[in-house]
Write a structure and sequence with these properties.
Elements: H1 2-16, H2 28-37, H3 41-48, E1 51-52, E2 71-73, E3 84-87, E4 105-106, H4 112-118, H5 121-137, E5 142-143, H6 167-182, E6 187-193, E7 206-208, H7 211-215, H8 218-229, E8 233-236, E9 240-241, E10 244-245, H9 250-260, E11 266-269, H10 278-283, H11 301-308, H12 314-330, H13 345-359, E12 361-365, E13 378-382, E14 390-391, E15 400-401, E16 421-422, H14 426-433, E17 438-442, H15 445-453, E18 457-463, H16 479-488, E19 492-497, E20 512-515, H17 523-531, E21 562-564, H18 573-579, E22 596-606, E23 609-618, E24 624-626, E25 629-632, E26 635-639, E27 642-644, E28 649-656, E29 663-664, E30 667-673, E31 679-686
Parallel strand pairs: 3-5, 4-15, 5-6, 6-8, 7-9, 7-21, 8-11, 13-17, 13-18, 18-19, 19-20
Antiparallel strand pairs: 1-2, 2-3, 9-10, 12-20, 14-16, 22-23, 23-28, 24-27, 25-26, 25-30, 29-30, 30-31
Helix pairs in contact: 2-12, 3-12, 4-13, 5-6, 5-13, 6-8, 13-17, 14-17, 15-16
The structure holds alpha-D-glucopyranose.
The site of alpha-D-glucopyranose (GLC) has 9 residues, from loops.
Length: about 700
């Protein structure tokens, strides 16, 4: 009897685990090894060559792919290995290429730069968890997110996808988004590795930079994000670095990423970023993405041939596949197969709104022009399609809004367009909150000036469309409109919807300036709530706003040959500090509707760690959010986002990342302030030489 019972148990467990690698009690690397050993060479080759998930130049993806998606890697049914279904990107589920089906309309977070401007890692996690849930519900188990390239170039067309100029802020915010995405048992990437810091000549420029400086800036941002988010995959970039294409740079992939950092996941290429077979495979590329974008299918037949002729060792193919399987097991892709279902878009709209609200930066507020009083009698709302919606950035990360484009037909209508406006109208949001106010709208011209002349306040919305594959001008087309309105209404407030820093020649002529970035699905609501003071203005700049492009390290954009970052790790505010330049608005800057005091700054070495503490107090009349920042050796070393009631104090303790400790003659100086340029308190601590 007992034998029969045991046999039944064994059969049950065996059938439940058709394969030994199905045992979730085993560590992911063990499970990967077991699955690898069961594979034929052709099955291994299946996993390293991806396909485009949408239509392109006559290519049509197989039925199993998710039509309109970025990528698809067939699975191995015999072994219970599912396909990799890949969707873009960092703000939500995007649609790529020319799809035969309806585009996927989903929830969009505000831009990555807006999330960085919240300085709130919990919001970054929540946003990642939300878009990862929508990816999973749409049938995807890989999200091509985690853009963390530093803002060396304020004109970079993809700055809106990233998280600004500082490695600690960018790495922390993007690392938390990645963790949020992967909390859905799907894989997130981190991208674009590395130094893809401009779009001009992105397929051909060769970045030159001192290696140590790179490890103190761009590569440090990747490292910090990977420590916090543990992404299953790294996407290598289009450009060359140190003379090799990033996806065939052994220094970047084998030496730094895999050997020095111990990365156990897999390196996938960007779409069209593979230029060889053996060189790329031996340099550390593990998977060719969307081979339809490359000059030839390098990791298909050519790889099979390279294995036969010894150009690529069979052990290297095993390592490629082992890494892919490791990422799948480690992130639950195999144990939690995706199933297509509806998402809770109402709940998700609230998630993106909270993010957008906290990312909005109040840059100027003269004579308390803001918040708008509910008693305001006549209000002029002008420009920026504020009557219809809010702008989004263009390219592969663009999410098609639920209910469609609020302003269809704006050029370019094809990739990296269409120019997208999420149908969350700031005008409608203001009207719903100001029932007793006469609110007029005008797109521009004389009508706008006349409307402003007769109003108690005028809000001018200005937009700057930026997109993947093109770099932008910092000059706003709407500058003349702002100047004309400011000339007739002393209470002119400008709301900027931009992909990054913009020039503001009218900043001295207006009463209020609000940077709203690309505020996502609920952006109009978020803008209205900040303008009315329903929530405090609590965003802080994740990047410096220059007075002019001549203040930047490379006023002339180089789009071919070497791009030499001789500023090294002096990125953003560190450059302005080193050159003694005064920007328009500094890194970390932003106003609140309340006022805060900081005191009691102390620093100690406690159990081998540098610990800093201080007290923040809300000395204003209303609840508000404060972002006190710590700087060591002129660079951001820590911060805290605080919500404080009037009169409330909070003691803050921050442990400084050892990599950011900078001691002169054994003494480390820590400064506390409200931006990189407004540093109010200093503390020093003796640091042992071993530190
Ligand atoms: C794009 C982008 C990358 C994106 C991929 C798939 O060209 O560089 O960020 O994930 O291709 O669309």
């Amino acid at each position: 009897m007992r034998i029969a019972f045991t046999a039944v148990l064994f059969c049950l467990s065996a059938s439940a685990m058709a394969h030994p690698w199905d045992d979730a009690k085993l560590p992911p690397d063990k499970r990967a090894e077991l699955a690898l050993k069961a594979m034929t060479e052709d099955e291994k080759l299946t996993l390293v060559a991806g396909q485009f998930g949408s239509m392109k130049d006559g290519w049509e993806p197989p039925a199993e792919a998710r039509m309109g998606s970025a990528g698809y890697v067939p699975g191995i049914t015999r072994l219970g290995i599912p396909p990799l279904w890949e969707t873009d990107a960092g703000v939500g589920v995007a649609t790529q290429g020319h799809t035969r089906d309806k585009v996927r309309e989903r929830t969009s977070l505000p831009s990555g730069l807006a999330t960085a401007a919240t300085w709130n890692p919990q919001l970054a996690f929540a946003g990642g968890a939300m878009i990862g849930a929508e990816a999973r519900d749409a049938g995807f188990n890989v999200m091509l997110a985690g853009g963390v390239n530093l803002m060396r170039e304020p004109r970079n067309g993809r700055n809106f996808e990233y998280a600004g100029e500082d490695p600690l802020l960018a790495g922390t915010m993007v690392g938390n988004e990645i963790a949020g995405i992967q909390s859905n048992h799907i894989i997130s990437t981190i991208k674009h590795y590395a130094l893809n810091d401009q779009e001009s000549g992105r397929h051909s420029v060769n970045v030159q930079i001192d290696e140590a400086a790179a490890k103190q800036s761009d590569l440090l941002a990747f490292k910090i994000a990977m420590e916090k988010g543990n992404p299953g995959s790294v996407m290598c970039a289009y450009n060359l670095v140190w003379g090799d294409y990033a996806c065939e740079s052994s220094k970047l992939l084998n030496d730094i990423l895999k050997k020095q950092w111990g990365f156990k996941g897999f390196v996938m290429s960007d779409w069209g970023a593979v230029y060889s077979t053996a060189k790329a495979a031996n340099a550390g590329l593990d998977q060719e993405s969307a081979l339809q974008f490359d000059n030839q299918p390098y990791f298909a037949e050519p790889l099979k041939k390279a294995l036969q002729d010894g150009g690529v060792a069979k052990a290297r193919l095993d390592d490629m596949v082992r890494r892919i399987l490791y990422a799948m097991f480690a992130n639950g892709v195999i144990d939690h197969p995706v199933q297509i279902k509806d998402s809770d878009y109402m709940a998700h709209a609230a998630v993106t709104q909270a993010d957008a609200e906290e990312g909005i930066v109040l840059l100027k507020n003269q004579n308390n022009a803001l918040p708008l009083s509910p008693a305001i009698h006549k209000l002029a709302v002008i420009g920026g399609h504020a009557d219809a919606g809010v702008m989004a950035g263009g390219g592969s990360s663009m999410v098609y809004p639920i209910a469609g484009n609020a302003v269809p037909g704006l050029a370019p209508t094809d990739w990296p367009g269409p120019v997208m406006f999420h149908p969350s109208s700031p005008l409608r949001a203001l009207k719903s909150r100001l029932p007793n106010t006469e609110i007029g709208f005008a797109a521009g011209g004389e009508e706008a000036v006349n409307l402003a002349r007769q109003a108690d306040a005028a809000i001018v919305f200005v937009t700057q469309w930026t997109a993947e594959s093109i770099d932008a001008s910092l000059q706003l087309a709407d500058d003349p409109l702002v100047a004309a309105v400011a000339a007739v209404n002393p209470r002119t407030i400008v709301v900027v919807e931009s992909g990054g820093p913009v020039l503001m020649p009218w900043s001295g002529q207006v009463a209020g300036i609000v940077e709203a970035w690309y505020p996502g699905t609920s952006g109009g609501e978020a803008i209205a709530r900040v303008l009315l003071g329903e929530v405090d203005a609590s965003g802080r700049l994740p990047a410096t706003f220059p007075r002019g492009i001549e203040q930047t390290p490379h006023p002339v954009l180089v789009d071919k040959g070497d791009v030499t970052y001789d500023e090294g790790a002096m990125v953003g505010y560190r450059w302005y500090d080193a050159k003694g330049l005064t920007p328009l608005y500094p890194f970390g800057y932003g106003l609140s509707y309340s006022r805060f005091k900081h005191d009691g700054l102390t620093a100690t070495i406690d159990n081998g760690k540098l610990k800093v503490s201080f007290v923040a107090t809300n000395i204003g009349e209303r609840a508000g959010k404060d972002v006190p920042q710590l700087y060591v050796g002129g660079r951001l070393a820590g911060w805290q986002k605080l919500e404080l009631k009037p009169g409330q104090s909070q003691t803050v303790s921050v442990t400084i990342d050892r990599r950011l400790v900078n001691a002169m003659n054994g003494v480390c100086e820590i400064k506390l302030g409200t931006s990189s340029r407004d540093l109010e308190l200093t503390a020093s601590v003796r640091v042992p030489p071993t530190f």
